[in-house]
Every structure is written in structure tokens, then in C-alpha cells.
Predict the 3D structure of the following.
Amino acid sequence: GPTGGTPVLRTFIPFHPDTVEKTQRNLPHWKQPGAAYFMTFRLGDSVPAPLMKQWKDELETWMKFHPEPWDATTRHEYQKRFQDSREEWLDTGHGECLFKRPEIAHIVANALKHFDGDRYVLDSFVVMPNHVHVLVKPLGEHKLEDILHSWKSFTAHAICKALGRTGNIWQDETFDRIVRDWSELEIWRKYIAENPAKLRAGEFMFGKFDALQAAGGTPAGPTAGTAVLRSQHPILVDHFLEDATEVDVDCISDGETVVIGAIMEHIEQAGIHSGDSACVIPPFSLSDAVKAEITSATKAMARELNVIGLMNVQFAVQNETVYVLEVNPRASRTAPFVSKAVGVQLPKLAAKIMAGAKLVDLGFTKEVIPTHYSVKEAVFPFVKFPGTDIVLGPEMKSTGEVMGIDASFGMAFAKAQMAAQPALPKTGNIFISIADAEKSKAADIAAGYVELGFKLFATSGTAAVLEKAGVPVTKIFKLSEGRPNALDMLKNGELAMVINTPSGKSAREDEVKIRSTASSNRVPVMTTLRAASASLAGIRAMRDGFTVKPLQEWH
């Protein structure tokens, strides 16, 4: 943040009429020792001279009929007529707008910060394409007019030198206003912070110090330093979709016809990297309406992007609402899996299309929806890295993929687990530990495992939820509470499976130890409830036995 000065010098001093000196011509128009000012100064070509004269005449006429002090209604009228409306006009970007150029905007920003803490306290500023807003408090004997003069003269010389030109840079006119109270200070801070959002294009610089303090030394806000933002590097604000289902779609297009290769429903929820999540063809839980919307949206995007070949789209579905996560106008790693699942060699067709062929001529104009299920599962290297947390997230951790095919979803999932290893157990003990946010959803899944003859073990929190739901469970100690605990049972070979959903972004040490030890001992671990539910379906299917046949017999 700003350096130099003391908390006393940074203290905000509100407006006091007894100490104010009013002038008609000199800047500032109202002076008050120790006051903070909101200032605006503009490039010379930002407002044409005739318009500036018109604005001044309008204000002088209005002031004759509305002498101060003003009531709230009159103050609001002044704000709207002579500040807001003119600011809106200015924000449309009149003149050359030199500050769209980052090297020129930096000259101004650096000048504003140069004597911060020495001659003045710089609270915040924004450099827009053709004007500058500043919240500043002069220090000691330093006058606002001298500070402004130093800013303008230094930057004018530096800008002219950088541009190889001569002449005026700044307007003579400057808007200044004493910040009357703490509430108004916050309003001006917010106004400065929101200014960049007005831009449709162009460069801006933004410095937020919140350096001024309330009386008594209470910091007014963060003093971490200047945040430099530019419109060509915008801030992305996103929102995570809780309990959403992720969906992958591969399609093929020749520029005229678009055909869906397959809609793949992820087993892990949205937020897990698509390369790490198991996925199923055809979808096992999506409604017909959602599938229809996904199909329509995919085809529309392929046409709009003029895709010639393969395209991959990732969607998220939350409460029957479909969101587009990303669109990749290229082949995806899922293309081989889709080709085997539907019996159509999509990459081969795409290569022919890119060479000029049409889908109609190739005989592929309609989506193939198989009557069997295909499950793609990721293969992870965790066993090679003891102690590594195996919980899945947005970073891809898998190093390979396998697939299982069967007439039932459960058996296809079980086959995929057999290929990926470790395979799902048919009997034994299961340790279950569910994050607080998901405990209410775990009872039905846990009851399903009990119905299949598994014995459940859980620590106190999860055990209490299961007991309340009438699910038989044996309570064991947390690692920090004593023994026996889940780690002991894993090392003794007493657990056939672990269901452990992470408690948060920063996993607890006990969770990491349990998951990594289970992986090292080749005990299957499910870190999401959707995976635990799919595993339950797989174990149920294995009870009836299964058959194996070559890929060709499925098509």
C-alpha cells in the first residue's frame, strides 16, 4: 500500500463549514485543512470547447437560482444534471482517448503514486480512456492546486515525449469536491471502483488503496497495494454449480449436416476433471427434455462455428437447467471411446470430411443410440506415489483409460472397475465417512450396501446420521481419538472398500491418510456419492454373474 505518513495523517477529516474557505476561480473551489477531495481531470480533446462553455454557462445559471446550502432534493438534481449526465457523456469515449494505450496510462498512474505518503495520501484512482478520477488528501502545507499542477505538468511532458508531439494534453478545467463525511467517501470509492465496468473497449488503470482511516485509527479497508487491471485482461467472476451433473458430447459436422456421436453422462459430479471422471453411454439419469436440449445446442454451436470434423462440448446440468462449460472445435480424448461404444469410427469419418467428403455420402446422418451401456473409467498412478491424496478435482490426475460394456449399467461399471483395478468387492466391511454437506444424502446409499450384506463402519458424525436413518453401523474412533480406527482396519486387511468424500478444499490430514493408505493397499475408494451409488449398482449386478463377448458382437 502507500508508504510514508502516519495513522494521524491518514485520518479522514469530515467537512466542517466553519473551517472552509470558498473561492470563485481558484482550485479547489472550497478549501478545508486536512480534507479529502474527489477530483476529475480530463484530456484536452475529451470535451469540445463550445460544449465545455455551454456546460459552464448552464451551471452558472442554475447556481443563481439554487444558492447553497441545498436540501436533499436540490442536491440530487445537481448530481444528476451536472455530474452524472456529463460523466455518462464522457464515458462514451470522445476524443483521441490516449489512455487506451497502456504505456500512456502507466505514465499517469505512476505520477499519481509518486509522492503518495509524502505530499498527499492517495486513497484510490482510476485512469479511464480520456479522464482520471482521484480520491486524495493533501498532507501538511501541500496544496491541492500544487499537487494537481505537478501531476498535469509532469504527465504532459512525459506523454508528449512518448508520443513525439508538442501541445496541450490536459484541459484547464478540473472538477473538485470536498468529501463531506465517511459515507460520501465510501460512495466515491465505490464510484471509482465501478468505473472500469462502463468500458466497452479500451485501456484503464485502477488503484485501490483505501488508505484513509476513520477517526480513532480504524483502517478503512485493505492496504495491500495497487491492483492494476486492464480491459484486455478482464476479471472473470464465475459461480460453481453445486450438485450438477457434467455431460460430454462428441459430434461430427461437414458444415451442413451435424450428427451427434454420443452424449456421455459423467458419474462424478461437475467440478471433477472430465479426464478423471467415469462416464456412461447412453446417459442413465438425464431426462428426455435435457437430452433434447443438449442435442439442439450442440448442433447449433457446430453450425455457428462452421466446424468441419469433430467437436466436443462439455455441459453441466443442474435441476433440469443446461449450462455450457466449454466448446472444443476439435477431436477429444473421448473420440475412441465413443467410436467403440456406438460402433462408428468417428475419427476416420472426420478425416474424410476434412478432405472434402459429406456425411450424407458416407452414410452417417443419424445418431446411434446403443441398446447396451458403455462405461469409460480413468486409470490413476496413485499406487506409485504413496501418501498422495487421491481425491479428485479440477486438475487431471489420470494416466490412462479403460472401458466396460454390458447390457446393464451396473455391470458395465463393474467391468470398467475390473479393468482399472482395484475391482469392486462382493462382500466385506466398508468404512464410510461423509462430508457434513453431503451426510443427508448418504443414508439411502449406505442402506443399499447393508442390504447386500456389507458391514458398515463409520466415525461419530457419519455414524450418528446413519443410525438416525435406521442404517446399522459400527462406530469406530477417528485417527486422533485412538484405536481401532480406519487406518488400523486397512493395514489389517479388514476393509473391502472405503467411501470417503472430502470435507473441503483443504482436506483434513486424517482423510488424506485414509485415502492414500487404501490406495496403497489396493482397496477401492469412492470419493463422491455418485461414484458410491454407481459402485452399489455394479456390485448388485455382479451378484447375478456376468458374461464377456468381443466388441464386434455388441454392434
